[in-house]
Amino acid sequence: MSAPRGWRTTMASATFANGLRLLVLQQPQRRATAACLSYDSGTRDEGPGECGFAHLTEHLTYDDGSGGAAHAQVVEGLGGVLNARTHADRTSYWSHVPNTALRTILALEARRLQPLHLSAERLAREKRIVAAEVRGRHPHVSEAAFPHAQLSTLLFRNGANSHRGFTELDDVIGSDVDAVAAFHERCYRPDRAVVVIVSPLDPDLVTDAVDQTLGRLPGRTRSANAGRDRTIDGTGDPVATLAEVPLCQIGLATPLPDLVGRPEIAAGLELLGRVLPEVVGPGPGPADELLSVQGRPALLGGPLTTRAPNGFVVQCVGDPAVDDEAVEDRVRAAVRSIAAGQADPSRVEARATGVRRGLLDLVDDAAELASTLGGILAVGGRPTALNEAVDALADDPSTILQRAAETLTGPWVRATRRPSAVAA
Amino acid sequence: MSAPAGHSRPAAATREPLDVHVAPSPGHVCQVRIRFTLGALSTQAALLVADRLCDPIGRVDGEPLAQCLESLGADLRADVDVDHLTLIGSVLADRLEPFLELLVRVLDRRRPEPDWLSAAVLRRLGQTSDALRRAPDLHALVSLNAHAYGSHPYGRSHPSRDDFLSLTPADLEEFWASVLTRTNATIVISGPGSEQVVRAMTESAFSAWTAHGTPLSIPPVRAVTRGIAQVTVRHSPALSPVRLLWRVPGRSDADYPALRLGVVALAGGQSSRAVRSLRARAALAYRVSGSLVHPRAGSVLLLSADVRPGSEEEAVALLLQEVAALGREELSPMEVDRAVSLVVGSHERKLDSAAGRAESLLGLASAGVDPRWEQAHLAAVAEVSAADVRRVMAARVDAAAVCGVVVRGEGTAP
């Protein structure tokens, strides 16, 4: 068995008159077709009074609103599956269907780009479902979850980046039809969308199908964007909250530069997350012991889609009484030493193999691959970003690690949770 | 493969045949699964062994496991269910052979390490388990299993802190000697490369592992307790879990294809009857799902919904109405087509990735089902009529015979 260092596939791309972009990956071995329509819009497009609108709009456009799950019925009637997800920077709808169903699902995607015809009754129903999802997924956000949500609030003062678009429901509950339709009009536009198709089908045939279903929809005039402020203005004020958690949880974050178009640095930051725990170490004594350290470049936005403002996050779990300020110092010192080239090259190379395997794992699943590439393209990345990242990890991991660590020059912020008994 | 320095093994032990299954798949990554059957042995011993086997700082030939995995760029974790302990690994294809050799070294020790039952390990596992059991989803499952299965081993599916603290060295020795054996192992590998080469590589690597024992079994479940148990918890969950269960025929039963279509029409996918009823029309829930699951002691139909507090009775009534309707009226031709397409499509998607192939094959092989069963099943599903579905749902899934639990906070008691 042999594995090439990277990953190669036949790609074709197109941009249509209405601004919609297309990437087709032809993979002859596939038994089904995956399609992902990603919009360059997410919670960071939410302005004042719109907290949660991106997620709500994803729900409202997910189906035709008849209450009969018509969209799902068509896709599932063809033997496919579908789902959608809202991120800070993008909203993605994907489906994984038999190869013969491509045109049908593209026709369904075209409906999402039409103006939203929304009744008050439909909005009220979807608000209840969104509330149920948020409460089900994030039942303990305000109490015992890792202090992740607080980090974006500490690192960014601009509301578009610091607000909690998934967990705060007040604006969603108070929304009306006009406000939500206006958000949809602003964000769900052909020129803010990209389609990625992973399929054994001929790329010309796929391009033709997308042109006829989505590429000829009317474009729209650009309107002002409510959110989107790229200011990084971290306060650096630590917060400590008490909660019924068994151990001390320390969240640290520092701003990241814009990594769109720099996949090797994004890969280097993923690698930094793997290397950091060992360099930080367990701690000088029992009272400073850390049980786990995890780092990743994903405060807002996931792997290889790190558009600024974003943050490199480090999560530490330790003894209930651990000194969080000392932990922050140790993490910052570890980053500085890695930036100075002091990481053991053989260990770095070994860890890079794991990161590379993780990226190649994404390639295994067609829907995951379409969704990942859709995310990369939606934020302005290159279609080859995944290949470039995999190759960089194979070629010179120590250099990309060092260059990645060198980018972390901004302020750090810290949020800590401790068991209430310890703090008292 | 050669034995690493300092590693000992019985000199001339007889090797039992190994149950190895290979699913070739394109790509760059190999998925490896090793599943052990637990029989009627306790899940607390399985969870402890799983935790210790995959402990990143646990030593394998003097090196921390994390370091061994890191040098291969591999990933290893363990999963425990009521029937199995499964090791789940993933590695770049060109490092499969040393990864398999590492797995053998992880498994090939005479007995559990003495410190596995240390107070710190048991306390941590117990605390984690108790914390998980407080989560509404798992709390509902624990309650459902206890209610449905009573004194059967499935009734104690998720151990508490006290269960961990009660583990003795003898329990662990017994578990190790009887479960972690070639006899009780099923190995599945999916990835690039020819089946013959991968099989030979696997058998060669595992030839060093000689542990053998006797096949383990579990008493069958003939019936589950009827009725819906009301479970009240002190901290009100944001959503109230509703779980309904029926004992149903297994995969070898002639009624199974029609049963599967009925269940897909009922609760498979997002346009099923239950989802449309509870989510799209009544807006009681975000997540509604249902599927046939196949524990070794007997297959069950499980329906799940997490519903708005205060709407639990309405949700249960709606779900039972949908179940009863399937036994009363025939599905529309469109519903039959949709269900068949979903079953076939699900099979195709599973075969579209190495991980999907590995999971699919593991599910069949570890249950003793011939991997060719799937093709025969798909052919049978295509022949099922709406009348077949109605007949089988009426005969095999009686809404009145439901076993279930509803979990809610103190403030929303009925």
Structure commentary:
- The complex is a heterodimer of chains A (about 425) and B (about 425).
- With about 425 residues, chain A is an alpha+beta fold.
- Chain A has helices at about 55-60, 70-75, 100-110, 120-135, 150-155, 160, 170-175, 175-185, 205-215, 265-280, 325-340, 345-365, 365-380, 385-395, 395-405, 420-424, and strands spanning about 10-15, 20-25, 35-40, 80-85, 90-95, 195-200, 240-245, 250-255, 290-295, 310-320, 415-420.
- In chain A, the strands form 2 sheets. In chain A, strands 1-2-6-3-5-4 form a 6-stranded mixed beta sheet, sandwiched between helices. In chain A, strands 7-11-8-10-9 form a 5-stranded mixed beta sheet, with helices on both faces.
- In chain A, strand 4 (about 80-85) and strand 5 form a beta hairpin.
- Chain A is globular, with a radius of gyration of 22 Å.
- By secondary structure, chain B is an alpha+beta fold.
- Chain B is built from 15 helices and 12 strands.
- In chain B, the strands form 3 sheets. Chain B has a 5-stranded mixed beta sheet with strand order 1-7-2-6-5, with helices on both faces. In chain B, strands 8-12-9-11-10 form a 5-stranded mixed beta sheet, sandwiched between helices.
- In chain B, strand 3 and strand 4 form a beta hairpin.
- In chain B, helix 3 (about 95-105) runs parallel beside helix 8, helix 11 packs across helix 15 and helix 12 packs antiparallel against helix 14.
- Chain B is globular and about 60 Å long.
- Residues about 1-10 of chain B have low confidence and may be disordered.
- At the A-B interface, helix 2, helix 4 and helix 12 of A face helix 2, strand 6, helix 8, helix 10 and strand 10 of B.
What is shown here, in short?
The complex is a heterodimer of chains A (about 425) and B (about 425). In chain A, about 40% of the residues lie in helices and about 20% in strands. Chain A contains 16 helices and 11 strands.
Question: Topology, please?
Answer:
The complex is a heterodimer of chains A (424) and B (414).
Chain A: E1 10-15, E2 21-26, E3 33-39, H1 53-62, H2 70-77, E4 81-86, E5 91-97, H3 102-112, H4 120-137, H5 148-155, H6 159-162, H7 170-174, H8 177-187, E6 193-199, H9 203-215, E7 239-243, E8 248-256, H10 263-280, E9 290-296, E10 310-318, H11 324-339, H12 345-364, H13 366-378, H14 385-395, H15 397-406, E11 413-419, H16 420-423
Parallel strand pairs in A: 2-6, 7-11
Antiparallel strand pairs in A: 1-2, 3-5, 3-6, 4-5, 8-10, 8-11, 9-10
Chain B: E1 19-24, E2 29-37, H1 43-53, E3 59-60, E4 63-64, H2 65-72, E5 75-80, E6 84-92, H3 96-107, H4 119-134, H5 136-149, H6 161-165, H7 169-179, E7 185-191, H8 195-206, E8 227-233, E9 240-247, H9 256-267, H10 273-281, E10 285-293, E11 300-307, H11 312-328, H12 333-350, H13 354-365, H14 373-382, H15 386-396, E12 403-409
Parallel strand pairs in B: 1-7, 8-12
Antiparallel strand pairs in B: 2-6, 2-7, 3-4, 5-6, 9-11, 9-12, 10-11
Helix pairs in contact in B: 2-3, 3-8, 9-12, 9-14, 9-15, 10-11, 11-15, 12-14
